[in-house]
Design goal:
12 strands; two-stranded antiparallel sheet; globular; alpha+beta; 8-stranded antiparallel β-sheet
């Protein structure tokens, strides 16, 4: 499966393999192994925290649910779990607007053109209350020439919620702690 199809499926389901918003971090650890454990998102407090599998960046709240998935496509490849084996595999990620929207249509995914900013715009999907935005750039580099077909820069899926306060006194910085 190529990056365009993987990302179109992400738009349709809000998941890449087992990874998606509202996924349980302990269940991801069980299926995929230990993630990269990053720093807290904010300087005050331990949660939410950054975690990662391949080059997928996850924001996880204190109740151990994924609340945001970021797919940095600008690297030239994406590293994601294979749907059959859950091992991490890499795919070239040169995805254009026309390729991506055609793939969304082929997946039967409802989408809309979202926000526009100088040099970029978004394509948005929503499934089960989870909103995913695909950010396309229309210029090469920061001030380069215009592109004939915008290219995908990143995808961000979000489903934030309010967690119940944690009552644990144990160190809660990793998967399975709370």
């Amino acid at each position: 499966m190529n990056a365009t199809r993987i990302l179109a499926e992400f738009g349709r389901t809000a998941r890449i393999g087992p990874i998606g918003c509202n996924a349980s971090l302990p269940e991801l650890v069980e299926g995929l192994g230990q993630p990269f454990i990053g720093d807290p998102v904010y300087s005050k407090g331990r949660w939410p925290r950054w975690f990662g599998y391949g080059n997928l960046q996850l924001v996880v709240c204190s109740c151990q649910l994924v609340v945001q998935v970021i797919v940095p496509v600008w690297h030239g490849e994406i590293e994601v779990p294979d749907a059959r084996t859950n091992t991490m595999v890499s795919h070239p990620s040169d995805v254009t607007y026309s390729q991506f929207t055609a793939a969304l249509d082929a997946e039967g995914c409802d989408w809309s053109r979202g926000q526009e900013f100088p040099g970029q715009y978004t394509v948005e999907t929503e499934v089960d209350g989870i909103r995913t935005e695909f950010v396309f750039v229309t210029i090469e580099g920061c001030e380069g020439p215009g592109l004939s077909d915008a290219t995908l820069d990143k995808a961000v899926s979000s489903a934030f919620h309010d967690c119940a306060p944690t009552t644990s006194n144990k160190e809660d910085t990793g998967p399975g702690s709370g």
